[in-house]
Design brief:
The strands form two sheets. This protein has a seven-stranded parallel β-sheet, sandwiched between helices. The protein contains seven helices and ten strands. With 249 residues, it is an alpha/beta fold. The protein has a single domain, classed as Rossmann fold (3-Layer(aba) Sandwich), CATH 3.40.50.
Amino acid sequence: MHITISDTTIEMAHRAAGSGASALRVALSTRNEACVVLATGTSQLDMLDALVETDDIDWSRITAFHLDEYVGISGTHPASFRKYLKERFADRLPISIHSFHFIDAADEPDREIERLNAEIASKTIDVAFVGIGENGHLAFNDPPADFEVEDPYIRVKLDERCRRQQMGEGWFDRLEDVPTEAVSMSIRQIMKSKVIVCTVPESRKGEAVKKALEGDVTPDVPSSILQRHGDCHIHLDMASAALLTGNEQ
């Protein structure tokens, strides 16, 4: 793992976007296409802003996959992750992305999983942009995560801490409103990415960051699997890195 700690959240976001953009340039220079996975949530907002502002990426040759989405949420719901990615990323690009495979799990999530698995089967993921949840989750793979399932996309249950995080970030008014299931990219599929860029701001993620980066690799801390990836770039700000060995305050 390559761990970078920035003085500010904005600096962290620009460095993270730069890491991913560099990998996309390499892919586009060696092939006629590239493929990227994009995450959502408040941790990705500034990074996506910086990525959109990168002016030398030919998005017309890039295919994007959506990391995860709630089951039963329409594309117009304020908490919809496909709405998030359309408004905060796809619609803001200077040129249209070649293809964007959004997850629509509103009505028939199992059929959508079949579609997504067929679409991604022949693709090489050049860069996966991800975050780490307060409970240590990676995508919506909550603890204890399944490290063995081979399917690229799976249907998962959301634990209470994950659901409380979604409410706490302002996506839902009440815990009862937060869905209990989601469609998520699996751990094994994420780990197949050539490069992983993990952006994690804020002190509320500090405990999860320490366990993920310095603890044992275990399904009880799903993001700890990133320790085993050959080219993973972890981008932290001072708050999220505060509990790491040598950074304690």
